[in-house]
User: Fold this.
Amino acid sequence: MIVRLEPRGEPPVWLSPLLTVIALIVALAIGAVVLGFVGGDPVRAYLHILDAAFGDIGVLSDTLVKATPLILTGLACALAFRMRLWNIGAEGQFLLGAWGASAVVLFPLVPDGAPAIVVIPAMMVGGALAGALWGVIPGVLRARLGVNEIITTLMLNYVALAWIQFWVFGPWSEGGFQQTATFPKEAWLPRLTDFGKQVPAFGGLTTHLGLVFALIAAAVLAVVVSRTRWGYEMRLIGDNARAARYAGVDIAKYVIVVFAISGALAGLAGMSEVSGVVHRLQDRISPGYGFTAIIIAYLARFGPWRVVFASVLFGALILAGREIQPSGVPAMIQGVILFCLIAAEALVRYRIVIGRRAATSVPT
Amino acid sequence: MTETASVALTASVSPLAIEAVGVVKTFPGVLANDHVDFDVRPGEIHALLGENGAGKSTLMNVLAGLYRPDEGGVRVGGEDVAFRSPRDAIAAGIGMVHQHFALVPSQTVTENVLLGLDRPRFRLDLRRSEAEVGRLARDVGLRVDPRARIWQLSVGEQQRVEIIKLLFHGARVLILDEPTAVLAPQETAELFATLRSMVGAGRSVVFISHKLGEVLAIADRITVMRAGRVTAAGIDPKTVTRADLARLMVGRSVLERLKRTAVEPGRVVLSVDDVTADNDRGLPALHGASLQVHAGEIVGVAAVAGNGQSELAQVITGMRTCAGRVTIDGRDVAARPARESIEAGVGHVPEDRAGVGSAPNLSLVDNLIMRAFRHPPLARGPLLDDGAARHKATELQRAFAIAAPTIDAPVRILSGGNLQRLILAREIDSAPKLLVAVQPTRGLDIGAIEGVHQLLLDLRARGTAILLISEELDELLALADRILVMYEGRVSASFDTPTGADIATIGLHMTGGEA
Assistant:
């Protein structure tokens, strides 16, 4: 008895989404087994996650806060992945974006006491530019010299972290702590709770304007990838780069531009995080959003709107998972989800055949 | 022929070399082999003839252990066998040379031959193995240097390495899948001599082809397949004509009837002047190639694979950088990106349909608009008009009879002929001033070839200049107004058709005989 993979013919359109859902369920089941094994009650744990993430308007708001940087970095990854550019450097681009936005406030690049209407757009530009720069470096190396972008983007993550640490331990350190001083109020993205006086229901809700940026970015990307000539050319490059070249597409230009946009999106996530949540720069600004984004992009199969949904799911997992255990269980479940998704990918193309078909005896 | 007679005699006493009995093999949606019987006697060349998609390769893959049949079985020397892998098959003495060779380019001939063998057990004495390989090659009359690296060899030489590999692994039955597709006429003759000497030594050869002339020239027996079934089993080539075989193959009588109108060649559209370019390996492929193509003229390029004809097409279409001048209607496109050639009005039917000419996982729509998407009505500013794109795709699908379930289906499910029609539809629809067509009918069946030929002639009648690069001399003779021979990166000879050209002279030039 053996197990074999046989190529499928044309997989039906519903197969891929169905397998994604099945992969999620299998991953949660595996997580449940592990939880049970270590003496936890998986059902209660999952119900608790559900309740702690979506149970009331307050926690839902917290989930959305967690989802915001995930949406932006997830979009960054999904865009690059569509063209088979394996940008796994969203983490570093996120950090540089956070740094760029902070630089606007701390150098300062805008006059002291400038109103929010000036400071916030300047921070957005600063964050996006810094992130874009961090994306363009591997983009140019890949486009002009053929350097593998997986290596460069991965390595640049560590450079970015060291860069941030230099600034928060050194020039921008607040009294020797590894963080900067709190930004002035003009550098804070508006939150729902800021309107608590006008709308009492918003009181205490920390969801901030970054979520709107994220949704706008998703909407714009959705239009670009499906309705424009750029989206079409990216589709060509992603499916067959040689055919794209044959069709007259300037692939090098696309590689650089897509890396720049991808970096800018991740950078904007960094800006949104310092300006909307932390209100200062610190070295542990990201719990790995840029890496979780890779899983999200895959789970969403690179679709912008699906990235939004996947990000909310992961936002919930990160937020509520902490209530069970600070890091182990949520990280484990994330990992298992990625494995199941990758396994499911194979099943779109292949079917499993169990048991050897007996060699048919020759009719006599 | 006494040899055939003796074969028939021994066949009655000794068991069959290999036999397929009632083989059924289905792929999703396709019945590739429908109760197929096929047998090969020791010491014979058995030709398997059929169009693309007739099920020849599937049947051979069953014999060679690559596929397991859904029903039916295989016997070797009268014994039932159940191959679980090509390794089992080669152990039983059955080996196959596929159309796409499985050689490691950076390794030597000897290293490739040893690949997959259990011996030598541990220590690799390359010297000794080289001597063994060299001896075997000489014995069967295959000229090849055992120390040469694969990438240095021509396609014909690589094929010889594949054959030597099988013999070295002990193959008694050699299955050759379309072996002559990549060979020049003289190389084909050499291969045939080798095959004769191998069967003389008691081995058997299964020769897969869709070329009627070759099959009649080399085979001791012929089996014809059509649509997954055997339509004629083991017939004697002396008892049939080309017309008979063609009818058995396609199920109707086929004689190409092309409508060819007289066209007075017009202005010079393509001018290639002293062009030099390297191939993918960085070695010089074109040395000072020059040629011109006029409006309303088909210029054929005949060359053995690897003499610069592929690079010539790539230089003209902007897919390869070069030195020298390449002008389209006076506009210099040499060493410029493909976009420049496209804007200058060059259509391109590339050699590699699936790898270059199409995006396999994208839909018919996406593949049909690869030329038109930059301009209205498809482009509206930065937006792409989806409705207009679908309209164009629907129109082209109908006009060029591209068989596909819907225009949203990915093009990887199209057959070779339909994919080629899709590419031609797209390129012809772009109303090119110059069409560069490389091997436009390779791998297509007879019906599809006729369609492609007529499309090219119609385009010529509309005043398009056509550069046709083909390994099929018959095709060039039927279509081209002039035939240029390329040898070692240069245009070495020119022939006017139909009067000033014959296959023998062209073939001689192709191999450098009169260069």
Q: What stands out?
A: Chain B touches chain A through 48 residues (CB under 8 Å).
